[in-house]
Amino acid sequence: MLTIKSFTFNPFAENTYLLYDETKEALVIDPGCYEKQEKGELLDFITKNDLHPVKLINTHCHIDHVLGNAFVKSTFDIPLWYHEEEEAVLQAVSSYSANYGFAQYQPSKADHYIREGEWIKFGNTQLLSIWVPGHSPGHLVFYHEGSASCIGGDALFRGSIGRTDLPGGHHETLIQSIREKLFALPDNVVVYPGHGPSTRIGEEKETNPFVGKSAFS
């Protein structure tokens, strides 16, 4: 059975996710941990629960989602995976991280580029990779059918959507991605976003002011 544990890290209040099942194998998704106590919180949970991270995944590579990449990758000696279109986004972080107060940011590089439709496997679990560009060019979400859950990054939020005014963002593309890709998932699917509380696909179809029914009525 899939378990999803969330942590909220860094001044951007970014949601980091740790996914694991009965085998104790785990995925770390979007590690935003930067301060020593944040890294310690993640490490303590993994240690106390005897988990074994096997992959590090980025939904996308904006600074708030990758601050802990180097720490997680080196601590657990695991590969880093993200979409190829995020390569330039990630490598740009080093050029501006100090301006946001992250002078000790450590860069990281991909070990594997995820393709749309690729299965992310760990333990007895597999997640489907779905490409939803718009917030960033290579943004991915990861869907687990068995638990009706989706790790959604910064594409769709409760009552909102990801910002599109950053380099590589495009508003119309994001709207299309959500309506054609995310809204194709069952209404009962829970979306675990990169910031804020979880939501359900059906709820956002009905009430989201940007992509819901009222926005197109």
TrEMBL record:
The keyword Protein biosynthesis does not apply. The keyword Transcription regulation does not apply. Its cofactor is Zn(2+). Residues 196-217 are annotated as: Disordered. SMART domains: Lactamase_B. Gene3D superfamilies: Ribonuclease Z/Hydroxyacylglutathione hydrolase-like. Keywords: Hydrolase, Metal-binding, Zinc. SUPFAM superfamilies: Metallo-hydrolase/oxidoreductase. Residues 13-195 form the Metallo-beta-lactamase domain. It comes from the Bacteria. One of its GO terms (molecular function) is metal ion binding. This is Glyoxylase, beta-lactamase superfamily II. It comes from Cyclobacterium xiamenense.
